[in-house]
């Protein structure tokens, strides 16, 4: 009950940003698919019926599986952006509004408070961009709409961007919790997360990608937990 | 002997080389209403935050309800009410939502009727959002939230800061409501002496992080005194009185602020200094506090000049 109360509070505080991110991805995805349906889907059925004299068709485009390329590109910015905003909302804003003392004097452990924040972050990503991204993929794979179904790696790619958003969130949290004297060293957590994201984006072997993502997440999670449990508020 | 619910032993906090609190030793028994006094920056908030485990002591320790402050368990926190400095609450919440949030952490002990009564007493509506409340109203909500779970120990950090006289009176009456419930212990910091005078039965004074007084209000009132001595000739250069806080001179008058000095000692010293004329001046608590905590040897910036003929 206590954990749920904390979780609900965190989710409610992030709600406007979740709606914004979700709606933005939905809008871009819908527009991209609508643009592809006449260009690819409709023409494919015309092609099957037989072309009119003088009519041409770009067969490469017809067979291209890249209907979700544009939304995926947007998602690669939306997810880290959402991670940054959620990190600021969960860890930086209470410093400015000075509500940490009120929150920390709850009859729960600090670990529970952190757990609620992290849980709210994961739920936020899943409920806003995660579900919409999976929905867009499902729609693009509907039989009869396009000649070629979207390959699974398109879906996985999108979820990889969402995980990158979580990496940025943890980096922002780490920077907010830092008590070092200089601002340059305070933003180390965020800089590390951004550099790690770029590094992960450049990997292409799935095994390496999985291993390195797990490593980066584990490092940031351990550092954030340690900083939160020992920090003075 | 009453059970000690709040104890600090040599509690010390340094920020870099700067001491914020220096060896604070306190023992607050159950049922005590303790006013924690000090000027701005004296170390009151630092001490309270260390007691609640929000700050790590540089040295020493604090324990609340028998539990070390660095390791306060959720069960112990449940028995402690805390009103934060500035009444910082979640601005987007309504009072009703905040009540629900707070209630989740005190499922068995939350007094719903008491909370509703307090909100009604303060003429607030549960539908109001925190961000639309004034400072004073936020203070009232904070107090209601802290009192509704029936805490054994209530710690309040400058709860009347920034409140006008009427709201302050209402707030203190709310506090008295708690005090009338038996067995409650209250520690509240303030620099408004009238508030302390109304409710506290014990005062702790800290100045620049150092404990300067820990006694009953009556004891403090009886200890800090001001005496004016009149001389026919020039005033003596030195004042050899133990417990001298401040000494102000004019041409034929000597004004002394003393702590813990009885009348016989003053009379004996006056005689040695060459006068038998002196008066004890009535001081209110605020004057006593100011004299007690003001730095010694203050220079008087402005001096009244007698009109010359």
Protein described:
The complex is a heterodimer of chains A (233) and B (309). Chain A has 233 residues and is mostly helical. Chain A contains nine helices and no strands. The model of chain A has no long low-confidence stretch (mean pLDDT 87). Chain B folds into two domains: 205 residues, Rossmann fold (3-Layer(aba) Sandwich), CATH 3.40.50; 71 residues, Alpha-Beta Plaits. Chain B has 309 residues and is an alpha/beta fold. A six-stranded mixed β-sheet of chain B has the order 6-7-8-3-9-10, sandwiched between helices. Chain B has a four-stranded antiparallel β-sheet with strand order 2-1-4-5, with helices on one face. The model of chain B has no long low-confidence stretch (mean pLDDT 86). The interface between A and B is medium-sized, with 22 and 25 residues.
Distance between the termini of chain A: 25 Å
What is the general shape of chain A?
elongated
How many helices of chain A does DSSP assign?
A: 9
- Helices of chain B, by number, come to 10
Question: What's the story with the biggest beta sheet of chain B?
Answer: 6 strands, mixed
Give the total of domains of chain A. 1
Q: Cα-atom Rg of chain A, whole angstroms?
A: 22 Å
Q: Average pLDDT across residues of chain A?
A: 87
The CATH topology of the largest domain in chain B corresponds to: Rossmann fold
Unreliable segments of chain B (pLDDT under 50, ≥5 consecutive)?
Answer: none
Portion in helices of chain B: 25-40%
State the distance separating the first and last CA atoms of chain B.
67 Å
Poorly predicted ranges of chain A: none
Task: Please give the structural blueprint.
The complex is a heterodimer of chains A (233) and B (309).
Chain A: H1 2-49, H2 59-63, H3 69-97, H4 100-104, H5 110-140, H6 152-177, H7 183-186, H8 188-202, H9 206-230
Chain B: E1 4-15, E2 18-29, E3 33-37, H1 44-51, E4 59-64, E5 67-68, H2 74-77, E6 80-83, H3 95-103, H4 112-121, H5 135-147, E7 153-156, H6 165-180, E8 185-190, H7 193-199, E9 202-207, E10 210-216, H8 217-223, E11 224-230, E12 244-249, E13 253-259, H9 263-273, E14 278-281, H10 285-293
Parallel strand pairs in B: 3-8, 3-9, 6-7, 7-8
Antiparallel strand pairs in B: 1-2, 1-4, 4-5, 9-10, 11-13, 11-14, 12-13
